[in-house]
Amino acid sequence: MHNNKKAESRIMKRLISVTGILVMAAGLAQADWFFRGTPNGWAADALDPVSGSLYETCRTFGEGDAGGGPRFKIDRYGDWTESYPAEDYAVGSNQSLVIQFDSSTQQITTESVADCDTTVTDSWYFRGTPNGWGTTAMAFEGDNRWCTTESFGTGDGGGGPRFKIDHTGDWTESYPETDYFVSSNTTYDICFDAGTRQIDVTEASGSDLTLSSLGAEYSPTATTFAIWSPDSSNIGLVVDGVGYTLPRVADQLGYTGIYGIELPGDLHGVEYYFTIDGVPVRDPYGKMALPNQDVNIVMDMSRTDPVGGWVAPPPLIEREDAVIYEIHIRDFTIDSTSGVSAANRGKYLGMVEGGTTYQGATTGIDHLKELGVTHVQILPFYDFSTCSDPADTSCYNWGYDPRNFNVPEERYATTTDTIERVREVKTMINEFHKAGIRVIMDVVYNHTFDYEMFENISMRYYTDTDLSGTGNSIDANVPMVGRMIRDSLEYWTREYRLDGYRFDLVGIFDHDEYGDWGRYLNQQFPDRDLLLYGEPWNGYASDPREAERVRLGTIAREETGHVGVFNPKYREAIKGNNDDGYGGGFAFNQGEIWAMDFGSRAGIRYTNDPDQVIDLWDPMYATDPEQTINYVSAHDNLALRDKILAWAALNGVPENSDYLRRIQNYANGIVLTSQGIPFLHGGVEMLRDKDGDHNSYKSPDSVNKIRWNWKIDNADIYSYYRDAIALRKAHPGFRMNTWDEIDQNVTTIRHADDVLVTDIDAGANGDTWSRILVIYNSGGNFSYPLPSGTWKVAMEKNDPTAGNGRTVTGSMVAEGTAVTVLYQE
């Protein structure tokens, strides 16, 4: 506790007096009770009866004895057959303490006094709605004055917030005659004059405890514990089996309604949990937890850093330079063809095990380096609910059912050691950084796996309307809930060095809240160039706040937050429907060219005015190309290959047709040559399929896993993706950075309904190519009349290197179902 300011304050006396430990209750005392400890050489000294089941003694403690520091136990019969607590009760050295013992509950309380010769043996108790009308001992302040500090909520079933002062704890003498009522949700200093029986109540400013965050903030000498409780002031904390009552903490750092305490000592590795009205609850800010329990663990995170220390993340000049690759930890290496060692398959360390191959082809992290992606987006790897038994290796889940937002999932660790679990996550991120690849975490702040996660703290965490489609969506419009999400993002960024976040169903949140998270993170980490993007829709819910939520039509207003969204309009323009073979888009020689036109230019608005009100699903929505994530497939819905096969079945095209393989390349060839940020579903570069399963969130490995023989079997597909990525990375003409640059330097020309030509002034963005033509042809072969001058072919005929820089003039035949790229130097 920070008691340097007011060492004798009522608040501090209150904290000392209520420090206690709860053990299993027995009946009322049926024998004498004895003090035994270091001050009396563990002899049996009878306690003094106070009243009812309450006993007391005063003892002066020194430095302890040969067995340890100053400590004691309460012995029922003086023969050790029954004693409390289970472990010795440790206290500070060189101090005098009044020790009270309640034989009905076995609760021990201590109060520091100047010396035992001036001990006050009388007692007065606070009893009211904050403590459920229990008995909270008040601190003696001299001159018949007894005080306590209490935080009141809204009352109880019998009425509003109120209390009485009880002399003996059994209602035989209490004051005032009728309950003393106070205001709701307020903390008071309450003092009682035992001589005059007068009660003095003043509003308290709160404990002077200084916070840096909520949860358990560790230091080698003390740990601060704090939790938000907007509905109840009856807040407890149990640390290593010892119970404490938490006072209200003064509002600070934007935190309100907080209860907290600082406990001395090195508490690393100690188990703890909070209680609200006596009910155990998890720490929403907990950094580690016991599996499947509402019990957290205090963590010294400095012990968890990667061996050899952190390396700097790979440089990212502009966010539009990113090429994102999405993958699930288990999917990536669980198959034996990954070449990853058996112990690391499907684990954090398997993601970054180097030197792995299959029949001479690189696999794992070396594959990603060879492919050329800049970012790997990993499906959720915080603690999730499903597959709760790590020993059940057959259980599979994507992890979109959060249990603890800040705790790494144990299923992906190779050990049960909590320090090593964290270190393995950090090692994974660090090794990706060494490989030149940044790491994006898929986060699911929009809902929890059940109400159980927060309901016993407060239902204010949740929306009244089910916006996520899961029955328990999070309400970030409550300031302290939105703050929790921001704090979690900051924690992962600072502690785990993550480079960005993909938000699941970010559309349940207000766009200004989303933008504020981005603005804050970029202010705290100005050199990190974080990528923040998400799904701009909710779980198919009707939302009365629709116009305020994250949608295509609102995201431009948050440009300063550097936050973006997936572009569903461009996805549908390219491939059509998500989960069946109908509605083939431009990649299938169908679709609408106007939608392709807008998408290829990063979906930028018609005018550069973020405040202009547009349709919430307008395909022209962005004021910066970094706000647009272009993609055709992701973990959700049919994999691209499955979509192609479903379309082929409807249209009578054989599965082994080369035309279908061509579509696989063409679809993402469009994505990789469009303005905005490209996103690839892991395995798409190897013709990955999932047996037509459009929602494989809990399907077995046989459906979800990457089979690395695909890379051998589909080497031509892989080569296309690798070369198209290299082309994009080599030429900033594909990566304009502002609305103005695209507006002034990128012109699209529609030829009929099936050919879109993009004319790019590439030199304006520092490209070695002065001018680029990109042709998306979804019809038959097309003879395009070239602008004047000599042109070179960079990409054609379903092969990014087929052009090989050959020279053309006058006209150019662009094949159908292909991306053709020409340039002038």
Walkthrough of the structure:
The protein is an alpha+beta fold. The chain is built from 15 helices and 46 strands. The strands form eleven sheets. The protein has an eight-stranded parallel barrel, surrounded by four helices. The radius of gyration is 33 Å and the shape is elongated. The relative contact order is 0.06. Residues 326-728 form the Glycosyl hydrolase family 13 catalytic domain. One of its GO terms (molecular function) is hydrolase activity, acting on glycosyl bonds. Pfam families: Alpha-amylase (PF00128).
What would the keywords be for this entry?
single chain; 825 residues; alpha+beta; Immunoglobulin-like; eight-stranded parallel barrel; six-stranded antiparallel sheet; 46 strands; 27% strand; elongated; disordered N terminus; hydrolase activity, acting on glycosyl bonds; Glycosyl hydrolase family 13 catalytic domain-containing protein; glycosidase
SSE arrangement:
Blueprint: H1 10-18, E1 20-21, E2 34-37, E3 45-46, E4 48-51, E5 54-61, E6 71-75, E7 83-90, E8 95-102, E9 107-113, E10 125-128, E11 136-137, E12 139-142, E13 145-152, E14 162-166, E15 174-181, E16 186-193, E17 198-203, E18 215-218, E19 222-228, E20 235-239, E21 242-245, E22 248-249, E23 258-264, E24 271-276, E25 279-281, E26 296-297, E27 324-327, H2 329-333, H3 348-351, E28 357-358, E29 361-362, H4 364-371, E30 375-378, E31 382-384, E32 402-408, H5 418-434, E33 438-443, H6 479-496, E34 500-503, H7 511-524, E35 531-534, E36 563-566, H8 568-575, H9 593-600, E37 628-630, H10 640-651, H11 658-672, E38 677-681, H12 701-704, H13 709-713, H14 715-730, H15 739-745, E39 746-751, E40 755-760, E41 771-777, E42 782-785, E43 791-795, E44 806-808, E45 811-814, E46 818-824
Parallel strand pairs: 27-30, 27-38, 30-33, 33-34, 34-35, 35-36, 36-37, 37-38
Antiparallel strand pairs: 1-9, 2-3, 2-6, 4-5, 5-8, 6-7, 8-9, 10-11, 10-14, 12-13, 13-16, 14-15, 16-17, 18-19, 19-23, 20-21, 20-24, 22-23, 24-25, 24-26, 28-29, 31-32, 39-40, 40-41, 41-46, 42-45, 43-44, 43-46
Helix pairs in contact: 6-7, 8-9, 11-14
Pfam family, one: Alpha-amylase
Organism: Saccharospirillum salsuginis
Domain Glycosyl hydrolase family 13 catalytic: 326-728
